């Protein structure tokens, strides 16, 4: 559902989703949130080096938004990252994801210059949070 949502907002070449194979990678931790045994949210943490990790695949089903699922997912991801010695979590979201950017700001994320594969992308907004 998250891929369909992103593709409804942005051109396909501007959607930076991880595919199933990438989500199964050794450097990826995948998180699933459920309410009443129904999956309502996801997140992934990609740890490629010891100092920083990237938050990917963050999505909460529209019916569960406003219920605290996103904050709980972020809290779990940040705790796990801190336990792994990560100092900073970075992420990319879209210019049209206003609610997502508000959520991240509420939880202490700040906008940063575009990085990595997002450099030069007109629809990308990058954010980061120091967790140590």
TrEMBL record:
The keyword Magnesium does not apply. GO terms for molecular function: acyltransferase activity, transferring groups other than amino-acyl groups. Keywords: Acyltransferase, Transferase. Pfam families: Acetyltransf_7. Residues 1-132 form the N-acetyltransferase domain. The keyword Membrane does not apply. This is GNAT family N-acetyltransferase.
């Amino acid at each position: 559902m998250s891929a369909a949502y992103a593709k409804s907002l942005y051109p396909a070449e501007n959607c930076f989703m991880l595919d199933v194979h990438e989500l199964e990678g050794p450097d990826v931790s995948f998180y699933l949130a459920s309410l009443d045994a129904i999956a309502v949210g996801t997140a992934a943490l990609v740890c490629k080096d010891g100092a920083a990790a990237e938050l990917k695949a963050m999505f909460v089903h529209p019916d569960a938004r406003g219920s605290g699922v996103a904050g709980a997912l972020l809290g779990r991801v940040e705790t796990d990252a801190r336990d792994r010695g990560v100092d900073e979590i970075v992420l990319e979201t879209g210019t049209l994801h206003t609610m997502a950017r508000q959520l991240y700001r509420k939880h202490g994320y700040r906008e940063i210059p575009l990085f990595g594969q997002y450099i030069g992308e007109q629809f990308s907004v990058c954010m980061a949070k120091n967790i140590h």
